[in-house]
Specification:
Subcellular location (chain A): Cell inner membrane
Helix content of chain C: 40-55%
Order of helices and strands of chain C: EHEHEHHHHEEHEHEHEHHEHHH
Radius of gyration of chain C: 19 Å
Order of helices and strands of chain A: HHHHHHHHHHHHHHHHHHHHH
Membrane topology (chain A): Multi-pass membrane protein
CATH class of chain C: Alpha Beta
Bound molecules: sodium ion
Function (chain A): Part of the tripartite ATP-independent periplasmic (TRAP) transport system.
Structural class of chain A: mainly alpha
Mean pLDDT of chain A: 88
Distance between the termini of chain C: 43 Å
Largest sheet of chain C: 9 strands, mixed
Subunit structure (chain A): The complex comprises the extracytoplasmic solute receptor protein and the two transmembrane proteins.
CATH architecture of chain C: 3-Layer(aba) Sandwich
Shape of chain C: globular
Low-confidence stretches of chain C: none
Pfam family, one (chain A): DctM
Chains: A mainly alpha (426), B mainly alpha (191), C alpha/beta (304)
CATH superfamily of chain C: Bacterial extracellular solute-binding protein, family 7
Number of domains of chain C: 1
Number of strands of chain C: 9
Oligomer: heterotrimer
Largest interface: A-B, 81 and 62 residues
Number of domains of chain A: 1
Number of helices of chain C: 14
CATH topology of chain C: D-Maltodextrin-Binding Protein, domain 2
Largest sheet of chain A: none
Helix content of chain A: over 70%
Number of helices of chain A: 21
Shape of chain A: globular
Number of strands of chain A: 0
Mean pLDDT of chain C: 92
Chain lengths: 426, 191, 304
């Protein structure tokens, strides 16, 4: 009853086009009325407390780093490097896109930003070279959602805070599944382009490759600093974020010299605005989640799912189905913020590794970004590539199905994620 | 106050629109500047602390507290800017299919509901600001009420904006979405 | 229904005490005051929770005296380093007039102070070397609460004090961002710090009390009789909580031997640490009201 009331009010508000952050506040107010404790101070307190977190400071820092990267010439150099390495192969531009997607994923934490950067650079080239438009756009979208899996990742930071999971471990755990996603894309792309006769770029000479490598050296060093820093324990995720931001600013202004002071100002404005959009969602969700706790919804859900607790795989399958359905119509961040506090107790009872759970959850929501009817990455690629939404949907279909198979594989064999994690985390 | 000789007490619609547009642009510019200053201060504080800790085995203990204050302020100022620019994430897939008059009505309803939330924020954070004004943060000594003040100010600014959207005739409102592609990305970057 | 929230895990005496309090009050009021428990910080951290109490959006919680010091700086008097020798002394001072006066000082903040609970004596853990002498603390990066007294205390001992929220601490210890931290055994155990820290040195540098507090708005809404019941039940729960906490601290000392290398710190070294902290102690005593100081000192002298 209480769960139904909460979900109905939330989904109805979202469906009626209320901004999601406000929809969360509305559903919180509905719960207040239901529980008989309507009080504006509950809203104000939790909204402000929800935004007040030292850990979440990593979000503005990584957003600054990502924004500087795309406007300060780092992304461009990565695409150029990819071009010189794999551009000459059959279906070459597709492999360039996958390679660049993986490298950019290790610099930025946002699927949408990466998709936009990749798409605006590579889609025009692919169109000119006669690649099928829908498929190319689909590949960009599928490549873009690797960003939240490979560290740094804003969704992993958010689920870490929402579910009290170690963010450092989440970051380390994301590396292998992110790479597997890339390999999956390579395989699918090879199957698709096997029969097509596509123009390929001239093979780059050794000297050209070396030059591209040298030019992108400073950009390629950033993931080494971030992941190396977290792995060796030099930085906490928040500190890694600030180091990444300062590093990216220095590279783009002093070394690449593609960003002047006014350009930097614009980048900071953009990063601050993006921070606020994410953080207001986090804050609004923390109002809702306070009332969810007060209404003891997590316990109700735990009771409902309790019969599955003996079989972690089956429970995981059920949870993944729920997340997939919610993720089809809701964006990644709100899905995490709403479902994590509800699902975390039963996950703990069933003895599922919380780090594994966090990765699976984010992977699932990331796939939701490329599923109709609502998929933000699809929206971006539609507007960047100037094609019909339906065409983007059919273009992304094979990649999306492959990802779903991957998700099932990870449900069946959690070791694929946990084994490398514990090897990396030492 | 300057007015044209033909309509001494009744400025033309166009000039109201221009004045409002100018006011909203200036407001946005000021808010942007405040956010950038806070963001730069946050980066400087946390980065200096990292350098001091590893380079000199020392640190500034107020760094954490101050950067949290700034973070909350960036969040709430940016929330206002996001509302001004219609950048808060929403799902219009379903409402876009409704007939135009219904959409217009729905738009008003949505604005009204948001106004309700903002008024609750104003009322609640006003009480919290007063309540926490004498609670001092343990390290910096800044009143805890300063956190809630951010919520209060954001609530007031957003309420003003929403009341205006609710009452003002359609032609005075700015176009909801600009065609600037960088804005498109801004909306969705939380993914 | 009333709600009691805690910030520590379900296995910690803070939450165990809260369960006892909820159970007793629900039972003895014949269900008229039904109390629900929200442990593990699900409703917020200690600072958030205390502010909810003031606003009346939450009925009970159990913050550390270090948190209450931001409402009334006099609460710092309890955490001054090397002040109490044992639990009997703690109880005598806190249950006496000095402690009661401090509790009553919260009334004008919209809070009713009910009773002191035990969190135990605090000890240092770290990943570098055992702290056997006062000099061993030198240069260690120690995480402290975000509280000025604790920061000054550890800087005063020669450490590099790094204030940090507790929810980031495990990762910081694991990745060696900080070398160590300081807490009672019950927190070291319930937060699983033994997984990432090798050495535990029994410095017992400060005593940590928690305070069961209620929202004044809620208490005022109760009948005279019910208010008395809350006080009686609070007393019973406090005695239970202190016993559980102290027993657990004792058993944990034995149990943690399997996970960590534990050492005692000789009395003369602890005295040396205290001497080094005299300037810090004087500085912080200067911020506490004269009345509180004299009442406290008298009670302390009497308890010895
Ligand atoms: Na990433
Ligand atoms: Na979707």
């Amino acid at each position: 009853m209480t769960i139904g009331l909460f979900l109905t009010s939330l989904l109805a508000s979202i469906g009626l086009s209320l901004p999601i952050a406000f929809a969360l506040l509305v559903s919180a107010v509905v719960l207040m009325l239901h529980l008989g404790l309507f009080d504006s101070q509950i809203l104000a307190q939790n909204l402000v407390n929800g935004a007040d977190s030292y850990t979440l400071l990593a979000i503005p820092f990584f957003l600054v780093a990502g924004e500087v990267m795309s406007r300060g010439g780092l992304s461009k150099r990565i695409v150029m490097l990819a071009m010189s390495l794999v551009g000459h192969r059959k279906g070459g531009l597709g492999f360039v896109a996958i390679f660049a997607a993986i490298v950019m994923a290790s610099l930025s934490g946002s699927a949408v930003a990466d998709t936009a950067a990749l798409g605006s650079m590579l889609l025009p080239m692919m169109r000119e070279a006669g690649y099928p438009q829908g498929r190319s756009a689909g590949l960009m979208a599928a490549g873009g959602i690797i960003a939240p899996i490979i560290p740094p990742s804003i969704p992993l930071i958010i689920i870490g805070v929402a579910g009290s999971i170690s963010i450092s471990k989440l970051f380390l755990a994301g590396i292998v599944p992110g790479l597997i996603m890339g390999v999956t894309l390579v395989v699918i792309w090879m199957l698709i382009t096997r029969k097509e006769d596509l123009v390929v770029a001239k093979k780059a000479t050794g000297a050209e490759r070396l030059r591209a490598l040298r030019k992108s050296f400073w950009a390629m060093l950033l993931p080494v600093i971030i992941i190396g820093g977290i792995k060796t324990g030099v930085f906490t995720p928040t500190e890694a974020g600030v180091v990444a931001a300062v590093y990216a600013i220095i590279i783009s202004t002093l070394i690449y010299r593609e960003l002047d002071l006014s350009g930097l100002y614009d980048v900071l404005v953009q990063a601050a605005r993006n921070t606020a959009i994410v953080m207001f969602l986090v804050a609004a969700a923390s109002v809702a989640s306070w009332l969810i706790s007060i209404a003891q919804l997590p316990m109700l859900v735990a009771d409902m799912l309790a019969p599955l607790a003996d079989n972690p795989r089956l429970l995981m399958l059920a949870i993944m189905a729920i997340v997939l359905i919610v993720g089809m119509v809701m964006d990644l961040t709100p899905t995490i913020l709403v479902l994590t506090p509800i699902l975390m107790p039963i996950v703990k009872i069933a003895g599922i590794d919380p780090v594994y759970f966090g990765i699976m959850f984010v992977l699932n929501c990331a796939i939701g970004l490329i599923t109709p009817p609502v998929g933000n990455v699809l929206n971006v690629i539609t507007s960047v590539g100037q094609l019909k939404f339906e065409k983007a949907v059919s273009g992304v279909m094979p990649f999306m199905l492959a990802y779903l198979v991957l998700l099932l594989l990870f449900v069946a064999f959690p070791q694929i994620i946990t084994a490398p994690l514990y090897w990396l985390a030492g | 106050m300057s007015s044209s000789p033909h309509s001494p007490s009744h400025p033309r619609k166009g000039s109201i629109q221009a004045a409002l547009g100018c006011l909203s642009r200036q407001t946005e510019r000021v808010l942007n500047l405040l956010m950038v200053l806070a963001l730069v201060a946050m980066i400087a504080l946390v980065f200096t602390n990292v350098v001091l800790r590893y380079g000199f085995n020392s640190g500034i203990s107020v760094s954490v507290e101050l950067s949290r204050f700034l973070f909350v302020w960036v969040t709430f100022i940016g929330t206002v800017v996001g509302l001004m620019r219609h950048e808060h994430l929403s799902v219009t897939t379903f409402s876009d299919r409704l007939p135009a008059p219904v959409q217009a009505l729905l738009g008003r309803l949505v604005t009204l509901v948001m106004l309700g939330c903002c008024l609750m924020l104003v009322k609640g954070s006003y009480a919290q600001t007063l309540l926490n004004w004498n609670n001092l943060s343990p390290i910096s000594g800044v009143p805890v009420g300063v956190f809630y003040l951010a919520g209060l100010i954001a609530g007031v600014l957003m309420s003003i904006l929403l009341v205006f959207r609710l009452l003002a005739p359609r032609h005075l409102l700015r176009q909801p979405r600009s065609q600037d592609p960088s804005q498109e990305r801004a909306q969705e970057v939380s993914s | 229904t009333a709600r009691i929230a805690t910030s520590l895990p379900d296995s910690h005496p803070q939450t165990l005490g809260a369960r006892k309090f909820a159970e007793l009050l629900t039972e003895q009021s014949n269900g008229e005051i039904e109390v629900q428990v929200f442990g593990n910080g699900v409703l917020g951290n200690d600072v958030n929770l205390a502010s909810m109490l003031q606003a009346g959006t939450l009925e009970f919680n159990v913050p550390s005296t270090a948190t209450l010091a931001s409402l009334n700086p006099d609460f710092s008097v309890i955490s001054l380093p090397f002040q109490f020798d044992n639990a009997t002394q703690v109880d005598a001072v806190l249950d006496g007039l000095a402690g009661r006066t401090l509790l009553d000082s919260l009334a004008d903040k919209g809070i009713v102070g009910l009773d002191y609970w035990d969190n135990g004596f605090r000890h240092i853990t770290n990943s570098r070397h055992p702290v056997e002498t006062a000099d061993d603390i030198d240069g260690l990066k120690i995480r402290t609460m975000q509280n000025e007294l604790y920061i000054d205390m550890f800087n005063g001992l020669g450490a590099n004090a790094i204030p940090m929220p507790v929810n980031e601490l495990f990762t910081a210890l694991e990745t060696r961002t900080v070398d160590g931290q300081e807490n009672p055994f019950t927190v070291i155990d319930s937060k699983r710090f033994y997984e990432v820290q090798r050495y535990l040195s029994q410095t017992g540098h400060a005593y940590d009390a928690q305070v069961l507090i209620a929202s004044k708005r809620f208490i005022d809404s109760l009948s005279e009789e019910q208010q008395q019941l809350v006080r009686d039940v609070s007393r019973e729960a406090a005695l239970y909580q202190r016993q559980v906490s102290r027993e657990l601290n004792d058993t944990l000392l034995a149990r943690l031997q399997d996970q960590m290398s534990i050492n005692e710190v000789p009395l003369e070294e602890r005295q040396l640490m205290r001497e080094r902290l005299m300037p810090v102690i004087e500085e912080h005593r200067a911020e506490i009201s004269e009345a509180t100081l004299s009442a406290f000192d008298a009670a302390l002298a009497e308890s010895r």
